[in-house]
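Raw record, unedited: S41 family peptidase
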Amino acid sequence: MRLFTLLIGLAVCVAFRSTAQQSGNGYDPYQLYSVEQLRQDFAVLRKTLEDRHPSIYRYSSREEMNRYFDDVYCQLHRPMTETAFGDLLRPLIVQIRCGHTDLQESLSYRRWRSKPKPEWLPFDIILANNRLYIGRNRSTDSTLVPGTEVVKLGSHPVSEVVTFAKNRWPSDGYNETFKDYFLELYFLEEVYWKHFDGQSPWTVTVRDTTGCERITTIQRKPRITGSELNPVPFNANVPTEKPDKLTRAIRKIRKVSPGPQKLDQDEVKQQLMRSLQFPASDSSVAILIINGFSYEKHESFHRDVFRTLKQAHTRSLIIDLRQNMGGNAEIGADLMAYLIDSTFRQVDRAECRVRKPNAWAYFDRKEKRLLRQNFRYLGKGNGRYLFGKSNVGWMEPADEYKFKGNVYVLTSGRTFSAASIFAASLKAQRPVKVIGQETGGGEAGCNGGIIQTLTLPNTRLRVRFPIFWIATASQQPDQGRGVMPDIPVTYAVWDRIRQRDLEVERALKLAMEDQGATVRK
């Protein structure tokens, strides 16, 4: 009886400990892992990447990667915490030059309730040519007007912090626009807070438009609430605060359909993801905004769009992919079917370095099932294992409503993954004009298809990386760059502050010019 009671008590303790660890209650951020444990994790990481990453030697040679691996191994001579070990591995992961390959903290760390939260700088940042400027100012120093350059964060030159951050953010090949986007979005501030002790109050060195430098110590300005709120008149030096996208979309729906109504939030989100607009009254030009290839009922949406364009006699179509981080490439393939007359390819091939890419003990089981459900093995070619899917290889165009007018594609550093595949393959198979910045995803292709998660056995750090190399239809040599714009658009700092949309301005002007040239012919 005592033995039975002891066993029950032991089981309860184990269950409680497991639950506590899963919820983050049992996580110890200061736990030190032995040199042996760290080296074991490192050995698993190295073998997995060397054997299974589809492009580990595509943009960094085997000799270079061996040097990076060996350099990290030599530093594993003392116990480390999970965080310290992760900080050591991150630059190594970046050297693979794959935007889909990233290092993430353990699930226990993610669930840890008391984990420190970054302190964000009290102003919006604008990055331009590795220089930092102030956008909207929320600090206690009201003299920091938009457009003021920040030359030092604390005692550190901005260039030092930017370089440090870029060495820790992955991108496809030698691309920089993808890094710039995420550094500006949040990562530069996170790196400054985590690695340079960037906490409030912040001391910054700034340079005004006359070239004068000064040092100021700032904090975040307290929020004004209740009766203290007053309307702020528009000032050319201070951008007006815009409502968020969801609010603007709801207002638009209310304007179209007046009166009391219960808004479908899912429909609002779908409209934010994709929409068709006619900027001119004559409907000769349309703008198709695709903010991600992850919307529902895409086949009916695409059919409705191109039927509308045909009925409206639209002659020029602007496809805006600037906020499109990718998603389901099959949605992009269906969209492409309305833009090309004959058989076409969106994805030329999906290739893997091993026959059974998910056969590895440290991989996530759920993601293993996704591979079996979505891809089928085709055979071996050129030393690689080829897999098939509905959007791989030759595809048929749409039966009706194909668009034969002028097409302009707007791109940015955020145009990534399935969106850059779409832009690259479309440009390779029909006349289009790409306007904007180099895409964040590669023109020749990217690593993708299924993203697998490798969990290291001791620290439980996770490395997410793709299984396949996804080749586009582009015939250009792989130079490790994104889709380059035919018409590059560069923003001055004041263009950003005034929230100008230079790509749309340029595209509309080109559309009018091209239509005029067609009429004159």
